[in-house]
Amino acid sequence: MAAKRLRGRRCLPGRSSEESLKMTWHILDTGSIWLKEFARAMSREVPTQNWCPEIRSWGYCEDWEKTDRIPDPAIEMTRFPLQRGYSRFPIAQLFPFEKALVERLKRKRPKPEQSTLICTAPYYAPVAEHWPGRVVYYQTDMTKEYPGLNANQIVGLDRRMCRVASAVCPNSTRIADYLTSEAYCDPAKITVVPNATREENVLEQPLTAPGTAPADIADLPRPYLGIIGNLAANMDWNLITDAVNQTPNVSWIFVGPTDMNIPDAQQSNARLELLSRGGRIRFVGAKKYGELRDYARAFDVALMPYKKHEPTFSGSATRFYEHLAACRPILSSRGFHELLSKEPLLKLVDTGKEIAAAMEELKRTEFRDGVEELRWRASQEGTWSVRARAVLNAAARADRMKVA
């Protein structure tokens, strides 16, 4: 059962209830699942308006809005048209989008000068510069490291965003270091806000044995070693194959989509070979976000076999916080900088041989590593609700600094 917590909106530090409720927090945008989770947590604290662009070939000429009610997580999200290529030369110069978008946001809620705009991507820097109220930059990726993007352009946009934002909230220390060293962000503006899990996923007490297995894996013999995530290029499939070959008495469970292309041929072939094996290797496909915790709790051991490359290495491992809340033992590669400092909450491994050895050691203790309660306590501070309040507090702190 999930731990019971108080619900309802809280006043921002230093503001009355009436004044707080006048303010709207515009979140631009809520396209990814983790930003939807963040938006849901924010909506429990303050009034929010969630925005999600729909990229259109003639978006500059269109003027419509559509409100979607997302069931999981439960949020309302307003879609609007955005010109394809809106941030790139020459489209950005021929069809500037920022003024029209600011007017769209202003029409949705009164008194925009009292409202906060949360920008979640550097491309919204021109919007931030025209916003009449407070701006928070919630940076969830090392965007400049994405293949195919113009790194110099991204750095320039990050610099503009850091100049106009009152508070800057990257989700890892690596991104924070980049923002100060390359984007010239004032360190006093920065609050690191990692990714998280749902508050409902936190247990009322530590889980010291695996939970009930979902129906599509219940027939497999234990122990279960499970992997959750987008089963694509971020995963080290050579490491996984090595570990599978050395653990013949372990059931391997893969939860997530496998349709994304893997550019590295060797890695791609390794995934394809595992997909064809069957037996004690089972790919159950993509699941709804709310169902992932049932798999995480059912595992004897969770594995996070991320390949070390950017932008993954500099980000925040959402899946870590899911496994943290499940309390089960966690093995992890060194593919996330954030995870290198998380022992003893997890155990770092480099090879299939080390994974096999760790499984044998855990088998001797009935898959209890003695860290269950520590993970449980840590998970209480690793929720989206805690993250939302961290962003609110960072904005309030920026206000106090401005007054001083």
What does the model show?
It is a single chain. This protein is an alpha/beta fold and 404 residues long. It folds into 2 domains: 17-196 and 383-403, Rossmann fold, CATH 3.40.50.2000; 201-379, Rossmann fold (3-Layer(aba) Sandwich), CATH 3.40.50. Helices cover 34% and strands 15% of the residues. The protein has 14 helices and 13 strands. It has helices spanning 17-22, 33-43, 91-94, 98-108, 125-130, 151-164, 173-181, 237-245, 265-275, 292-298, 318-326, 352-364, 372-379, 384-403; strands at 25-28, 48-56, 66-71, 74-83, 116-119, 134-137, 167-168, 224-228, 251-255, 281-283, 301-304, 330-332, 347-348. A 7-stranded mixed β-sheet has the order 3-4-2-1-5-6-7. Strands 10-9-8-11-12-13 form a 6-stranded parallel β-sheet, with helices on both faces. Strand 3 and strand 4 (74-83) form a beta hairpin. Helix 2 packs across helix 14 and helix 8 packs across helix 12 (352-364). The longest helix is centred in the last third of the chain and has 20 residues, at 384-403. It is globular and about 60 Å long. The model is unreliable at 1-18 (pLDDT under 50).
